[in-house]
Structure formats: C-alpha cells, structure tokens
Design the sequence.
C-alpha cells in the first residue's frame, strides 16, 4: 500500500470500490432471485423443495471451488483466476435465464457458483496488502459496502419478477457480471507474489493450516455464526410465502432486513477492529447473533410472531455476522500470511459448505404445519455453537500467553 490506489490503473493497488463490487456481485447472485422461488416452482411445474436446491447446490459447488481456488490463485495469481471465473459466471447466468426445465436451470445455477472467485479473492487481495488488524478493518469496510446489495437485491429482484418475470433476475446478473469483468480488467493488477511451488506442492500446503487450532477456531466461528444466515436463506422465502402469505415483492422487501444489521456490523468492524482487536469483536458478534434469534423464537412461542417481528429481528443476526465475519476471516488469513489465498479458500469452504447443508436442512424441515419454528431452532443452535467456539479460541490464546 506504499503506492496510493488510482482508479482504473492496474499498476497501482486496486481501488476499494472494485473490491466492494467484487464481493457484492457474489452476494447478489446468491439472493436476488429468492423472492421468485415459489413462482419458479409453478413455472417449471416442480416441487418448491427441488427449486430451493438452487440455493443449497449453489453453496455446495461454491464450497468445493473455494478449496481449489485458494491454492490455484496462490500459484497463478489473483487476477487471471478472477477474470476466468467472472467470464464463466456471465455465460451461466444467460443459461439460467434461458432454461426451459428445472434440471437445466439447476445445472446452470451450479455453474454460476464460479463467481465465488470474486468474493474469496477480494479478501485475499486485502490480506496481500495489509497486516491482520488492518485487514480486519479493511475487510469490514469492503463488506459494509457489499451489505448494500442484499439490502436492496431481493426487493429489486421481487419487483423485476412482478414486472418482467423471474428470468429478468438472471439477465441482470449476466449484465452485471460483464460489467465486473471489464472493471477488473482495467483496475485490478496482480497483488500476490506468485508461489515458486508446483501446483501439487501448493495443495500439499493445506496441512499447515489443518494443524493450526487458531485457523480452525476462527474458521468455525465464522462458519457457525454465518450458518444461521444460510439457514435463513434456505427457509425465509418459504416462511414469507407460506406462513405469512406475502407477495414476491413483499418477501423481497422484508428479506433484506439482515443486511441493515450487517451494514452496521461491518461499520463497527471497520471502525474498531484495529483498536479493540479481532477476538473481542468476534465474541460480541456471536453473542448479538444468538440473542436476536432467541428473542425471535420466544415471540413465536408466546404467540406474538409476525412477519414484522420475524424479519425485523433478523437485523440482530446481520449485526452479529457483520462483526464476526470480517474479524474471523482476518484472523484465519493471518495464521499463515504466505498462504492467504489458500486460507481464504479453505475457511470460505467451511463456511459455505456448512451453509449449503443448513440451507437444505431448513428447506426440508419446513412444512405446511410447522410454521417458522424449525428454521429458528436451526439458526439458534448454530449461533450458540459459534459463541462456544470463539470462547474456546480465546481461552486457548490466554493459556498460550501464560506458558
């Protein structure tokens, strides 16, 4: 960072706006079409649970790609991997829009997961440039800007659906993917020193991370805390449509509530991570997440649950995750700085892989008579486990400091 970034000049470090857009389009691809899921099930004459797999399968492929992309980007560099993944994403988005059967749609939807390169490597690029606490702060600001996307994405997607049909969401993604490709081409130079190891040797570096309790602690804190969000992704459209009877545009409007909290949590991370430190920020984030979900569940047991309370209290989940994810990610990437891409991919795979399972589980457990209870219980259990994980990491750190 000794050379100040100049926008659209790839001989200098990338502009923060480029990193925000790289992370943002990954989020948009995940959630913009969610209000359309019930209508897509009608269009394809398929069961809702089958179409809901468009979230779980996307996340599963996403997780596998992250394991591969980290070492590949450490070896080949960030720039070529991002450009290749973005190009494939554009083609897959067009395929989704033109799909005439649910199986063709799901196939292209899985290929769309290549856009994960933009999210994963935006974090690795930050760690390429700055040290741990400053990386947590910068990642916080990057994801704060990114949080605007899920805030408006589902609402905009619901409106597009009502005006032009569900296919318009995927045409939007294709256009934005092409624009991102052009932006990365112009603004993003190479930030990583290419590894001298062979590709096989690069993958054999994984045991260095596997043997690190700090890496596992940070990664699992992030994975478990965000697990409540991924369960929400899989179950909230069903709850909005079948439990509360909301229209797609209404589901989209309510659905963005966690992003309000996520925006605030990212701001707190950007402002205070350097001063407070990574571990306390993660701890307080996991606690806020768990408390918010507990209040939501309690209201339903008392018979006062409503669309407003269900979605509104998800702001606390977003706030907690906005504090946890940037700080836990910076911690995981700092265990072995020379393996930042590999660490970003592996920690992201743990988070997204767990998210895929929880998203699918939420879809399976929600039935006509279940209400929102199965979803909220899944979210609460993962949130409580996240608190326990970061407490374990902090206690281990204290023991090591005393020894």
Sequence:
């Amino acid at each position: 960072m000794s050379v100040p970034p100049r926008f659209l000049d790839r001989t200098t470090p990338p502009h923060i706006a480029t990193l925000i857009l790289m992370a943002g389009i990954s989020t948009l691809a995940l959630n913009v079409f969610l209000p359309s899921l019930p209508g897509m099930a009608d269009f394809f004459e398929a069961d809702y649970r089958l179409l809901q797999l468009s979230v779980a399968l996307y996340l599963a492929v996403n997780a596998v790609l992250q394991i591969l992309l980290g070492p590949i980007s450490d070896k080949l560099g960030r720039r070529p991997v991002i450009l290749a993944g973005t190009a494939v994403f554009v083609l897959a988005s067009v395929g989704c829009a033109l799909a005439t059967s649910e199986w063709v749609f799901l196939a292209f939807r899985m290929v769309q997961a290549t856009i994960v390169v933009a999210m994963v490597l935006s974090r690795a690029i930050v760690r390429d440039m700055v040290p741990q606490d400053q990386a947590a702060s910068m990642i916080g600001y990057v994801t704060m800007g990114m949080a605007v996307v899920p805030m408006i994405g589902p609402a905009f997607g619901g409106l597009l659906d009502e005006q032009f049909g569900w296919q318009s969401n995927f045409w939007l993604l294709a256009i934005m993917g092409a624009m991102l490709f052009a932006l990365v081409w112009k603004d993003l130079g190479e930030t990583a020193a290419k590894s001298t190891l062979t590709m096989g040797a690069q993958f054999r570096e994984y045991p260095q991370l596997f043997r690190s309790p700090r890496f596992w602690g940070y990664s699992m804190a992030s994975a478990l805390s965000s697990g409540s969000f991924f369960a929400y992704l899989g179950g909230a459209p069903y709850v909005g449509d079948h439990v509360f009877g909301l229209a797609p545009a209404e589901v989209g409007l309510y659905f963005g509530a966690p992003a309000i909290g996520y925006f605030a949590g990212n701001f707190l991370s950007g402002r205070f991570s350097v001063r407070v430190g990574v571990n306390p920020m993660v701890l307080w984030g996991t606690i806020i997440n768990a408390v918010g979900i507990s209040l939501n569940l309690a209201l339903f047991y008392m018979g006062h649950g409503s669309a407003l309370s269900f979605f509104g209290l998800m702001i606390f989940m977003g706030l907690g995750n906005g504090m946890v994810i940037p700080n836990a990610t910076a911690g995981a990437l700092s265990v072995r700085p020379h393996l930042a891409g590999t660490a970003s991919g592996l920690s992201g795979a743990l988070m997204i892989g767990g998210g895929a399972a929880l998203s699918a589980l939420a879809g399976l457990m929600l039935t006509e008579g279940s209400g929102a209870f199965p979803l909220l219980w899944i979210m609460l259990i993962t949130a409580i486990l996240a608190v326990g994980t970061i407490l374990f990491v902090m206690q281990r750190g204290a023991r090591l400091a005393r020894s």
About this structure: The CA atoms of residues 128 and 192 lie 6 Å apart. Residues 16-402 form a domain with the Growth Hormone; Chain: A; fold (CATH 1.20.1250.20). The mean pLDDT is 82.
